[in-house]
């Protein structure tokens, strides 16, 4: 093989990336005493991601380490064309190049927005190039404009609320200790607290980096500054805020426990969670088998199946009806249709119907049990209804004629009404005791209420 092939062009790898020093036309330089790079010769000096102040880049083919050989295109269009001609003449991009990045940042002072942009051309070992681009808008200076004080006040209020929330949760952890983490609602509160503190730290660091970049830009406006670093931190901060809002919104479902009809969703999942777990295990095995088959069949010819990650994404898109059947047939006229129709039949028509059947069966059982349950908050419904009647939002009740009491010897009508009222009051007190006990178990744990329910006394 060595006699017939004199060179090898492997794919890009983060640990196999070339970081040596070179002269023009990729002539290897002395690594012990590297030359002094000045002007255009700086294009042949390798710079790490730390030197460039960047983070890894995520392209279509793979993830790049963030370092490489860098050249600035100058201050004018003429300088840029001259540098491009030099790079072309010295073969700066050759057969071993795996990606070329073109980065630039623009600023709009009217709306106070930065646009961090980079375009990538990814070169495959077998030949050809795949283009990719990314544009991200940033507002680095948030305290700009007439609403700056409102933004500052809102952020200060959020910080105060986070500190109060942390004090409250740590107080509960100190009181309940290990029992605190056995409650699902407590875990949701703790995860929200950790994410909030992490988001606060990320926001402060992002603000510090942005201020440093803007200060350096004002001092040297013609120098290229890498805003990609602060752009990625801003993106991760937005992801963190989105996750916090998601968990906080889900926690509102806890309020729906006051009505038995609203409990159908959570009770349905509790009824069939074991069946769903077994189903998802079977679904994962079958889906992974189709992913491996699709990667081996279409990986060399279709960009949607070039890697295992893109293969999984393509198969999930197929479940939603987004697929390219003609490309599959073009790769293999026999195996392409067989793969597509077997995947559709197995996943869509068989497994999806099994999933719906499990949910329907659990929903039927839950609905039947839910119909037998009593509403634990009839007293709350009564209070809401009376409040609406008091403020005039409720419809007027039709006036009914006054009921006349029929006198039975030995039984006073007033006594009958008093007995009925006492029975209703006892029933209401029992329901209140159950409600308070549930809240106490939720907050303090089961052991804290072993002494018995909290009594509410009434007088005869």
What does this 3D model show about the protein?
By secondary structure, the protein is mainly alpha-helical. The protein contains 11 helices and 9 strands. Strands 7-8-9 form a 3-stranded antiparallel beta sheet, covered by helices on one side. Strands 1-2 form a two-stranded antiparallel ribbon. Helix 4 (about 185-220) runs antiparallel to helix 5 (about 230-250). The mean pLDDT is about 80.
The helix content, as a percent range, equals: 40-55%
- Low-confidence stretches are none
Q: How would you spell out the order of helices and strands?
A: EEEHEEEHEEEHHHHHHHHH
The strand count comes to 9
Radius of gyration: 34 Å
What are the defining features of this structure?
460 residues, mainly alpha, three-stranded antiparallel β-sheet, two-stranded antiparallel ribbon, 9% strand, extended
In short:
It contains eleven helices and nine strands.
Task: Draw up the topology in text.
Elements: E1 22-23, E2 27-28, E3 46-47, H1 49-52, E4 57-58, E5 63-64, E6 68-69, H2 77-89, E7 99-108, E8 113-123, E9 129-138, H3 148-176, H4 184-219, H5 228-250, H6 264-298, H7 308-319, H8 325-331, H9 335-372, H10 378-391, H11 413-444
Antiparallel strand pairs: 1-2, 3-6, 4-5, 7-8, 8-9
Helix pairs in contact: 3-4, 4-5, 6-7, 6-9, 8-9
